[in-house]
Amino acid sequence: LRTAMLTSFLAYASGLMLLGVDVGRPWNFYWIFTPWRWNLHSPLLEVALCMPVYAMVPLLLENVPPVLDWVHDKHPQYRTWVAGAEKIMLRFYPWIVGLAYILPAMHQSSLGALMLLAGDRVHPLWQTPWLPLLYLWAAAFMGFACVAGTLLFCSLVWKRPIDIDILVEMNRITAALIGSWLIFRLADIVFSGKLALAFQWNTFSGLFWVELLFLGTAVFMLLDSSKRRDARLIFHGHVVAAVGGMLYRWDPTTLAFQP
Length: 259
Known about the structure:
By secondary structure, the chain is mainly α. The chain contains 8 helices and no strands. The longest helix has about 40 residues, at about 80-115.
């Protein structure tokens, strides 16, 4: 859990800095503090609000307990202070955890809602009213892949023991998330009458099948590696899952976007 919290905080903090560079005018960030100038019809407004608040409030606070533990162990003279800080944390922690669920759910789904605004410029195999849900759902299984990869890298770099039981459980959850996501997405394509588009001989159908191939393969690799309890295969399974998920999130904005 602590690995997940720290990985998430570092990813969001660095991501926010990179967004500032990508936008090209980071000094204009002060506009977020002028609510009377907000464009309330913009999905990106929700992203711009939720991402910094998520990173700097719940994620930052969720990484405080390990720091308190370190102070408690290394500096006994501050143990009274640590005990007081822990009491305050315990009082507010349920609200912190609640925010940690709500805020990313809001901004991950808003990234999908952003592509809804593009209408038919996004290829029909990706354009669907369910985009906000599918984007959030994909973020969920990619999060598991990221944490599993981090755990395995830490085991290699710092010669830490590998907790196979935790990884096996994560594999099963990730495989269930991907499998149900695939079923939902395929059902949406079938019931919306778009299945024929997947069998046209063009770049878009190729991208669609590459996504499905990566994610379908990931499900089998994750389940197989769980049975074998093989750390190497677990890592490869999560890499394949992450690539498939990133392709899905990337295609509607770039490769399957027809300006």
